[in-house]
Specification:
Layout: E1 3-4, E2 6-8, H1 27-40, E3 44-47, E4 49-50, E5 56-57, H2 60-73, E6 77-80, H3 90-94, E7 103-107, E8 111-113, E9 116-118, H4 122-134, E10 138-143, H5 146-157, E11 165-171, H6 181-188, E12 195-201, H7 204-217, E13 220-223, E14 230-232, E15 235-236, H8 240-253, E16 257-258, H9 261-267
Helix pairs in contact: 1-2, 1-8, 6-7
The structure holds zinc ion (ZN).
Zinc ion binds at residues 9, 12, 46, 48, 81, 83, 105, 226.
């Protein structure tokens, strides 16, 4: 039976409790929401943390606390962000890799992010890839645009990333590539061999459509408040777990079983 890997991105960097009061922000809330998502079928947690005012931070102590609290509850695979938030320096974003998480995101290019922008030059990407390799951290190569796929492929060609590769397509960020299945297919056809991939649609409509794109083209799913705060048009999601539950249901209806953290460790050959 085919296995569907569901990642949950419980809070991200940009959303606030004003947007959805159910957003987890403290390490305790993040751990609780991650655990509830795990119970519904999430096998990877994409982790951002917030400071005491609820703002995005790359404070390594807060990361460590969140990781410890999650670890006490379950064995979900933890993928820390190195994207951080808009305006953070590369050094600030990379420090968290020293915690030796099993996985980390690696942004593969510069991109518009609404009215802001995120900078990732090739030298920055190489620096991140080398540090992750040194710490045995599996990178998730995040691509927001088509040129990012080619940049990620360059890192692979230079031997900076070890197989099996894991790409993730973050589509529908305002100012970058929109989600539609045709665009997704174009991205997928440019992947190297031995590649697994996850698709993320930003915003309620794209988030749900991307689940079907993953099923149609053989990828994995990501859900959570980082990407989308709605359950349906105009209806806020009650929890991350509610979104995971729906993704698991759709996967099972399409003939998949839901992957466990142990399946992910084997599939991705995780080392830490
Ligand atoms: Zn993120």
């Amino acid at each position: 039976m085919k296995k569907m890997v569901i990642t949950v991105a419980v809070c991200g960097a940009e959303t606030s409790k004003k947007d959805n009061p159910n957003l987890p922000v403290t390490p305790e809330e993040i751990a609780e929401s991650t655990y509830n998502s795990y119970l519904k079928g999430a096998s990877i947690c994409h982790l951002h943390v917030r400071d005491k005012d609820g703002r995005a931070t790359m404070d390594i102590n807060i990361f460590q606390k969140a990781v410890e609290l999650i670890r006490k509850k379950c064995d979900i695979v933890i993928e820390v962000t190195t994207g951080g938030g808009v305006g953070m320096s590369p050094e600030e974003r990379l420090e968290v890799v020293s915690l030796k998480p099993e996985m980390a995101s690696l942004d593969c290019g510069t991109v518009n992010f609404g009215n802001e922008y995120i900078v990732n030059t090739l030298p920055i990407m190489r620096q991140f890839a080398k540090e992750m390799k040194r710490q045995n951290v599996k990178p998730t190569l995040e691509c927001f645009d088509l040129s990012h796929v080619y940049s990620a492929n360059l890192l692979v060609k230079e031997g900076l990333i070890e197989p099996p590769y894991h790409y993730s397509f973050v589509l529908n960020v305002p100012g970058a590539a929109k989600y539609d299945v045709e665009t997704l297919g174009f991205f997928v056809r440019r992947l190297p061999e031995s590649t697994c991939w996850t698709v993320i649609g930003i915003g309620g409509k794209a988030a749900l459509e991307a689940h079907y794109g993953a099923l149609a083209l053989g990828g994995f799913m990501r859900v959570g408040f980082e990407d989308n705060i709605y359950f349906d048009k105009g209806i806020l999601a009650e929890s991350n777990a509610q979104l995971v539950e729906r993704a698991a249901k759709i996967s099972k209806a399409a003939g998949y079983s839901v992957a466990t953290p142990a399946d992910v460790r084997e599939m991705f050959k995780l080392k830490n």
